[in-house]
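Figure caption, in words: inputs first, then the predicted bound structure.
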Amino acid sequence: MSFIITEKRISKGGNLQKCEAVRAGKPSCANPKRLRKNPKTGILPGMNPPTPNGSDLCIPCGMCCDGSLFAHAVLRPGEEPFAESLGLRVVPTGASQPAFLLPCPLFQGACSRYDQPRPSVCGGFRCKLLVKYEQNALEKEAGLEVIRRARAMQATLGSLALPPAQLPLGLAEAKKQVHNLANVEARRAHLGFITLTAQYQMFLRKHFLWAPRKTQAKELPSMGENDTPAKE
Ligand code: SF4
Ligand code: SF4
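Bound structure (iron/sulfur cluster present):
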């Protein structure tokens, strides 16, 4: 009697071996119970998960480049001349670290220097969303949906902002506008804007922003290595 393989087998190297049913052109394995995928990751037992490409999220996102999340990006000491040579506006920050102002002039729908030398923060910063995606804890479509929701909230917030406001409206600018509503009447008149700013900030904190360190100015979150957990 010949032995028929009725399940997919996983080799030590993590590669799938096709069972005879599949080789014979049948639509599925005769014993699908043995091939149960991890319901969270959709990955078969023994298989290595695919390595996600962060560009899947960052290219359609750009929220840490266009001023949506941060008002400035921190430079490493000594990077100022290089940053200025790229046309970035270098400024000192409260923490006496050099930084360049956002929105970044090199952001044109996406980073125009993605594959060229950039300040170290550009390749080093990873928001919560990107870290989750790179750790295979988030599906690509779910990540893109978070970005779409953030952009939708931001657009609504921009439509309620007081002129003149630069669009897309950054979180720092929205908070500044709320802060400048000095009296009760002004606050009452812009209650929708105040409420949405609070919701938007919570959304960004949940999905994108790392908690500021004690040494960091709370009102102006910076984009820098200090904000970034160690890369695995
Ligand atoms: S690091 Fe985060 S905020 Fe920045 S572009 Fe990528 S997904 Fe967007
Ligand atoms: S150089 Fe590119 S990655 Fe860096 S802030 Fe500007 S647009 Fe973003």
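The chain is about 35% helix and 5% strand.
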